[in-house]
């Protein structure tokens, strides 16, 4: 956010459980575990990890991607790992989500995760 006020500071300030968003590719286990360690070291509660743009059935098989969700859950001690598939209708600039992504996101008990 700035040179001396990072996202981790903002997360502590608002006091809500953290949802870490990760990419699906090679290196994600390491990046995600480092992020989880930094968050927990700062006293933050990690409620979930979302792996965004996870390849769908039509994507070429990549064993590193296939193993990521289970490894992040196990090694990161995260109870909830959510996969949001990569679909053309998911567009940040247009603020649109494909129906499948909406369904996946709607199944997560966000209020429960936030302690509301």
How is this structure best summarized?
The protein is α/β, with parallel strands linked by helices and about 120 residues long.
Report on this model:
This protein is of the alpha/beta class. The chain has five helices and three strands; from the N terminus they run αβαβαβαα. α2 (28-41) links the parallel β1 (18-22) and β2 (46-54). It is globular.
Topology (elements, then pairings):
Layout: H1 7-14, E1 18-22, H2 28-41, E2 46-54, H3 63-75, E3 81-85, H4 99-106, H5 110-113
Parallel strand pairs: 1-2, 2-3
Task: List the helices and strands in order.
Answer: HEHEHEHH
Strand content: 15-25%
Task: Please give the radius of gyration in angstroms.
Answer: 15 Å
The number of helices is 5
The percent range for helix content is 40-55%
- Roughly how many Å apart are the termini? 27 Å
Quaternary state of this entry equals single chain
What's the total count of β strands? 3
> Numbering strands along the chain, what is their spatial order in the largest sheet?
1-2-3
Spans with pLDDT under 50 lasting ≥5 residues? none
Shape: globular
Kindly name the structural category.
alpha/beta
- Let me know the largest β-sheet: 3 strands, parallel
**What value does the average pLDDT take?**
85
């Amino acid at each position: 956010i700035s040179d001396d006020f990072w996202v981790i500071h903002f997360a502590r300030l608002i006091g809500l459980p953290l949802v870490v968003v990760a990419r699906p590719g090679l290196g994600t286990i390491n990046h995600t575990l480092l992020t989880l360690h930094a968050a927990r070291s700062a006293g933050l509660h990690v409620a979930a990890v979302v792996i965004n743009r996870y390849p769908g059935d039509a994507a070429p098989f990549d064993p590193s991607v296939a193993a990521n969700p289970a490894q992040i859950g196990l090694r990161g001690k995260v109870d909830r790992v959510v996969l949001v598939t990569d679909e053309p209708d998911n567009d940040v600039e247009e603020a649109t989500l494909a129906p499948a992504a909406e369904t996946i996101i709607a199944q997560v008990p966000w209020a429960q995760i936030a302690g509301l």
